[in-house]
Structure formats: structure tokens, C-alpha cells
Amino acid sequence: MKRSRINDILREGNDFIVSFGYVMPPFAYWSPEELRARNPKGIIEARLGWDITDYGQERFDELGLFLFTARNGRAADLARGKGMLYAEKIMITRKNQLSPMHRHVVKAEDIINRGGGTLVLELFMPDAEGNIDTQASVEVPSDGVVRELPPGGILKLEPGESITLLPGVWHGFWAEKADVLVGEVSTVNDDLTDNIFRDKIGRFSDIEEDEPPLHLLVSDYEKWLSS
Ligand SMILES: [Fe+2]
């Protein structure tokens, strides 16, 4: 993706998020220069910030996701069972834009429709090896009530509704009727290692620099902030 397109998506996404009354933390709006000058380990090492991905496939409108990681705990805390074990993201799934089928090894996540259209999820249970089980019926908690679905079943979340996806549960999702503001409350998040995709795709965008970045993406930190 061109950087100019990333910048446009970032402006549009920010406008969409704030239109629901969600207020972004101040560091969201730091320039690349300010981020470099401040060099906050708590942001850079936890990989907080903007994340706009087309999964490396250059078809963002059909296959992509807009994310902002607002907080993220520590893997070491998770391993010892106390401390900062949690993370929070705010995301946008556009109408008919797919987040492709994947599972997590470590992370449990609640996916929340925080407003807009209908969020649609396709769900499978894992088999003994962790692969998609095409035979097993799916049981998932949704706002305190267990929902039962056939394998590959479709679950629709209207604004205000949420689902709990435990590690291993396969999920892909998209929006119907209108773009959706999506919340994620989860255990510690590691997007470098904890996303297993069904299909051979990447996790981040490949960026062609045609103008300066408005704000750095999390996936820019290593290249832009190392000196
Ligand atoms: Fe996920």
C-alpha cells in the first residue's frame, strides 16, 4: 500500500472512531518526530498505536482491518499469572471487508460491536492439532450466554453485542449494512507471533513511501525508530 493511502485511511478511521464519542489517547496524535524524540519504551515495546493492514495482499477494501492498540500487558506477567495480563484495541471493520480466518495460540479476546452496522463472524472449533475442525459444532460465550452453532456457523453481532473467543477458536469476520466500530478486550497481545491464519497471508502491510507518514504504524517502529 502507498503511504498516502495509509494516511488517508488513518484520517478517515480517526474521524469514524471519534464520531462515536471514543476519545483516543494523546500519543495517538504524536508525529513521527515527536515519537522518536520521546522514545517511550512503554509504547514502542508494547506495540501500542496505529495498525492498518491489508495482510500484504493489496486489496484493503476487500481484505483488511484498521486497528489501534490502546494498551497491552506483558508476556512475562501472563506467564507468572499476575500483573498486566490484558490489552485493549479499538478497530474498524468496513462493510464487506474481510478479516481472514485465523486463531490465536495464547490470546483470549472479546470482540465487541461498539456501533455502526452488523458484525458477522464465521466460526470453527480447532481439532486436536489446532486445525479447523469441519465436523465439530461451535460453542461460544456471547454476553454471558453460550451460543451453539454448526461448524462454520455464522454469528451476527448487533451494536452493543459481543463474543468471547478463547484460544484456538477459528474466526473470520466482516461488516454488513455499514462499517462497524469494533472493540477488543483481550489477554496480552503479540501480533508478531500469535496469529495463525488459515491461508498463506501476512499480518502487516507492505508500504511504498510516496509521502511522509502522518503517524507511524506499529509495524513502522522497528524501521523508523531504530537509530
Ligand atoms: Fe482474532
Q: Spell the H/E element sequence.
A: HHHEEHEEEEEEEEEEH
Main pleated-sheet profile? 10 strands, antiparallel
The tally of beta strands, per DSSP, is 12
Strand content: 35-45%
Poorly predicted segments: none
Helical element count? 5
Task: Evaluate the radius of gyration.
Answer: 17 Å
Overall body shape: globular
What is the residue-mean pLDDT, rounded to a whole number?
96
Distance between the termini: 25 Å
Give the helix proportion (percent range): 10-25%
Can you summarize this structure?
This protein is an alpha+beta fold.
Question: Main traits of this protein?
Answer:
two-stranded antiparallel sheet; 5 helices; binds fe (ii) ion; 227 residues; 17% helix; 10-stranded antiparallel β-sheet; globular; alpha+beta
Protein described:
- Strands 1, 2, 3, 4, 5, 6, 9, 10, 11 and 12 form a ten-stranded antiparallel β-sheet that branches. A two-stranded antiparallel ribbon has the order 7-8.
- The protein has 227 residues and is of the alpha+beta class.
- The protein has helices at 3-19, 32-38, 41-44, 75-80, 221-225; strands at residues 49-53, 65-72, 86-93, 99-103, 109-126, 132-133, 138-142, 145-149, 153-157, 162-165, 170-187, 196-197.
- Residues 102, 104, 109, 171 line the site of fe (ii) ion.
